[in-house]
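Let's practice the habit of predicting before peeking. Look at the sequence and jot down your guess about where helices and strands might fall. Then scroll down.
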Amino acid sequence: MNNATRRNFLKDVGLGAAALSVAVEGVSASQTGQAGEASQTGHGQMPGRPGTGDPAGEGGTRPTNIMAIAAHPGDAFFAMGAPVAAQTDLGGQGVFLSLSLGEKGSRTIPPAHYGQMQREASERAAQTLGARALFLDYSDGEIPVNDEVKFAVCDVIREHKPGVIVTHWRGSWHKDHQACYSIVNDAVFYAGLPAITRKHPAHNVAKLFFADNWEDATDFVSDTYLDVSAVFDRWTQACAVFPMWRGENGFRYNDYYTSLAVERGCLSGFQHAVALMSASDQLTRRLHSL
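Done guessing? Here is the structure:
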């Protein structure tokens, strides 16, 4: 990068940060996108469609209930755990929902044993972050895309009423991650429709974000940087209960995600940050809370 290009890049980042401070205090300047024809604060929000505004109706740091929905426990905590930690640190409720146990992820440990290890690690990690770990019983590598699983996720959403959901982006080489993306999008839609009768009443999710996952990088374009500096150590401590965090399965998750938090922090002006992609078009935002 030559000096002129570098100056322009830094100028663009600076302008972005100036504009983003508006979003910290209120609703994003851009109200276009998936729910653009409805109110962005939840009042008049179209049923079944995530909004793009402030679910609390006010700006600043605030507690918001959050749910991470992932194909496997490792994805839930490594790629989505820091946003959950940031919200629980503010007093919000956090839930990790794994569609499978990721039981086929070890090269040496039988699936049944490894699945139990994953479950126990998830529960310990969630406790460290002041959250809950929930599981569906679909088979690792074989997560189906059908109404059975979509309504199962819908029921969890309705029960726990998250204001924010973080999940997989569709641009993945992993079929379970692609499946999770489709499942969650339809589950959010089902959860918000009062005409669909389930055990729990309808619940509209205010914001839907996609996580910055190394396996889901195709066409991933971040538009939100979340400050996780205050919870960085606690998040990495939670991740460390998983053997695969230390590279047991051949990929150095610890080095990748901790380095990525530093890199995203450099771009956003925080010490540590995570990048997220919103479900609708918005201006780039730099946030202290979701």
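How did you do? Strands lie at 66-70, 94-98, 132-135, 164-167, 207-211, 224-227, 273-278, 285-287.
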